[in-house]
Design the sequence.
């Protein structure tokens, strides 16, 4: 290992240490690679936190990575459920093609290399979030959403419910969309061309009853455009529908 000059590591640990320490990785890995000049990494740990008093910040993590020379560091701390903590730290610019279980806590970072993204949160995703997502993940090809909640608006922000739709979200490279485990709100959000534009979508995973409702039994014009290229031949099981919604007669 002493002759290694370039190294890429993508590690996601379930049930490991709650705290990702750069000092540990420096002692166990980098100190044995004196010739290393290019180090791209993604470290994540996913664990159940028994003590609710435990609070880890991004600065706590990043301060332990000061020995990573000539690299910018990004980090994410997410509480996926009431006691499930996901801790991530990664080199910038991000070099890998996927991120999983991302929440509303998405940083203002451009992930040009990411083509596969899975969203999961105990809180709903609003339209403003998807606008930021499109700006941060410019080359996204596959998107999966897992949340049972639709957005709510407080009385003092209810007017935003309609203002939100003034900006159409566009994912110019998105090929695959999985909303099978999402609230029907997200079917409306992504299939309605007045809210989202998906010019390259060919694969759609959705509950059939949600698709029927959003498309008004396949007669709604606003939902035709985003599904024009969807290929029904790619159906994989009875729970998912890969359907064509067009002007077929």
Sequence:
């Amino acid at each position: 290992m002493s002759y290694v000059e370039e190294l890429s590591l993508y590690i996601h640990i379930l049930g490991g240490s709650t705290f990702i320490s750069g000092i540990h990785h420096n002692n166990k890995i980098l100190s044995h690679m004196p010739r290393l000049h290019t180090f791209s990494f993604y470290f994540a740990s996913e664990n159940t936190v028994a003590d609710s008093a435990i609070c880890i910040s991004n600065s706590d993590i990043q301060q332990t990575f000061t020995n990573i020379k000539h690299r910018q560091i990004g980090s994410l701390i997410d509480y996926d459920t009431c006691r499930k903590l996901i801790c991530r730290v990664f080199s910038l610019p991000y070099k890998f093609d996927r991120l999983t279980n991302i929440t509303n806590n998405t940083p203002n970072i451009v992930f040009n290399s990411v083509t596969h993204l899975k969203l999961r949160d105990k809180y709903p995703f609003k339209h403003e979030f998807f606008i930021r997502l499109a700006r941060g993940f410019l080359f996204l090809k596959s998107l999966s959403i897992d949340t049972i909640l639709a957005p709510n608006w407080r009385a003092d922000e209810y007017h935003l419910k309609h203002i939100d739709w003034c900006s159409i979200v566009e994912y110019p490279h998105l090929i695959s969309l999985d909303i099978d485990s999402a609230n029907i709100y997200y079917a409306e959000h992504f299939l309605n061309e007045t809210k989202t534009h998906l010019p390259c979508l060919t694969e759609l995973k959705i509950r059939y009853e949600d698709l029927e409702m959003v498309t008004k039994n396949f007669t709604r014009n606003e939902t035709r455009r985003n599904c024009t290229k969807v290929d029904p031949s790619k159906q994989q099981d009875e729970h998912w529908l890969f359907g064509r919604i067009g002007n077929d007669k």
